[in-house]
Amino acid sequence: MTEPSENQTPKKKLYVISGLGADFKVLSKIDFAENVQVQFIEWIIPESNEEFSDYVKRMSARIDDSEPFYLLGYSFGGIMVQEIDKIKPAEKVVILGCIKSDKEKSRFLKLGEITKIPRILPQRMFNTKSAITYSFLRKIFDPKNPKLMDYFTVRDPYYLKWSIEKISDWKFEENSKVIQILGSKDIVFPVKFSKPDFVVEGGTHLFPATKHKEVSRLLKDIFN
User: Fold this and answer.
1) In this predicted model, what pLDDT tens digit does every residue of 50-76 receive, in sequence order?
2) Which of 29, 117, 176, 205 could make an SS bond with 188 (beta carbons 3.0 to 4.6 A apart)?
3) What ranges in 63-120 are assigned the alpha helix state H?
């Protein structure tokens, strides 16, 4: 077995959290920098009536902060890594297709916050097998992507309803450390409500999958 060189810089852990209901297929085509060791953190199903702060603590328990590390989150995962950073600070925090504060919420999300519609809707409405849910996801995520549902494998209705409630209610002051990358055609988190560090032209909310080459280049520059 070859011993590592004394001059060889050890790889830093890059903890990655994917989007709401999504597995890591959305991020599977990204070519990460060679100097990072990528570790994906799976979503866990929230407990009955679990507070968001308690859920964040449970998610953060999977992160080893005994040594420097990075955080990367996509969509709802972007919100999660920003919350985790308050408990276990990372050297760098990067968010893909996500907002940096509640001030960047779209009118649609603000409506959900004001009206509390996500709380009112019955849990069965969050079944991803329903035609209504499928049509809604197609419209806001990527209308032209026929493989849309391939990315949504976490389909527990309670988890989906709970998560959408938390996104609608989310309050957060912008952290200057956070690096934000948005798609120019993202309907979920429209670029016009934010001042992102980078914009992926032509990217819908699924841009980490559909524009993976550009995302890979950006992330290599950020983490190098």
Assistant:
1) 898 999 999 999 999 999 999 999 988
2) 205
3) 76-87, 107-115, 117-120
